[in-house]
């Protein structure tokens, strides 16, 4: 069977050994640092750090290939829409104009607009590895415990945990149903047209939905029989303990965030780095 997508990646790495609270906190601190700053120097530094973390986590490309394709489509679409609606936004931000070429009408390609949009793209590229690492290296139960530790109601935290645990089950059911349908003559290979494969995929989705409903009902009945939700609090079996590695990771994340804010406030005097002055 193919490698499961969007599921917990069981590997012994320094990233996996961190507690769920640490990974959640670090992800939030680093994501805020990337989103706060439009200094391309800071963004590139954090991007290299995020790619290093991604490499250490030993996540296989096959696990995130589909996600990266969607991200690439999103980045291209976002860049085109930004230019179509605000072709002069970079000029407004940096206060200068260095025109490259006049395309048509009000659309003029400038170095300021290119610099702004490239900075935005690098910001996304910097934060996406953190999200992937957090999602694929955190045990779903430990993630629920982490959410509950920062004040999220345990019912909501448990619902998120069940959702993450459900991804591998849905993938397995889809694979099994697909194999059964292909054995009956349903064409799903690359030999058929894209439209035909899409239509046949819809045929598979129908039994998949019924299978999902049955599983949800079974889980709901089991939780009701065990009195889930009766108490105001609950304990977590997989709640990780904080170690020196956890405190070190959190400290590094906080220092990166603080450094980003200080550079924006005292060096650039703004969230934007302006190379055109």
TrEMBL record:
The keyword Membrane applies. Coiled coil: none annotated. It comes from the Bacteria. It is found in: Membrane. One of its GO terms (cellular component) is plasma membrane. The chain crosses the membrane at residues 27-54, 66-85, 121-138, 198-216, 247-267. This is Energy-coupling factor transport system permease protein.
């Amino acid at each position: 069977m193919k490698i499961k997508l969007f599921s917990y990646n069981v590997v012994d790495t320094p990233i996996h050994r961190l507690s769920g609270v640490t990974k959640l906190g670090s992800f939030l601190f680093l994501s805020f640092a990337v989103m706060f700053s439009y200094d391309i120097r800071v963004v590139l530094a954090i991007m290299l750090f995020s790619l290093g973390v991604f490499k250490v986590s030993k996540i296989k490309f096959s696990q995130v290939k589909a996600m990266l394709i969607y991200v690439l489509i999103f980045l291209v679409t976002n860049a085109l829409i930004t230019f179509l609606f605000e072709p002069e936004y970079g000029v407004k931000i940096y206060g200068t104009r260095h025109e490259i070429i006049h395309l048509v009408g009000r659309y003029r390609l400038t170095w300021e607009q290119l610099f702004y949009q490239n900075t935005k793209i690098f910001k996304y590229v910097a934060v996406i590895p953190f999200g992937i690492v957090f999602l694929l290296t955190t045990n779903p139960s430990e993630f629920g415990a982490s959410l509950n530790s920062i004040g999220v109601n345990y019912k909501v935290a448990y619902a998120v945990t069940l959702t993450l645990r459900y991804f591998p089950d849905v993938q397995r059911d889809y694979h099994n149903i697909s194999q059964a349908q292909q054995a009956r003559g349903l064409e799903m290979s690359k030999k058929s047209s894209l439209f035909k494969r899409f239509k046949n995929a819809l045929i598979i989705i129908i039994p998949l939905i019924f299978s999902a409903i049955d599983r949800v009902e079974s889980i709901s009945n089991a939780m009701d029989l065990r009195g889930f939700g009766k108490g105001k609090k609950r304990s977590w079996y997989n709640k990780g303990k904080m170690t020196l590695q956890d405190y070190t990771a959190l400290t590094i994340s906080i220092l990166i965030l603080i450094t980003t804010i200080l550079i924006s406030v005292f060096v650039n005097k703004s969230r934007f780095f302006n190379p055109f002055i």
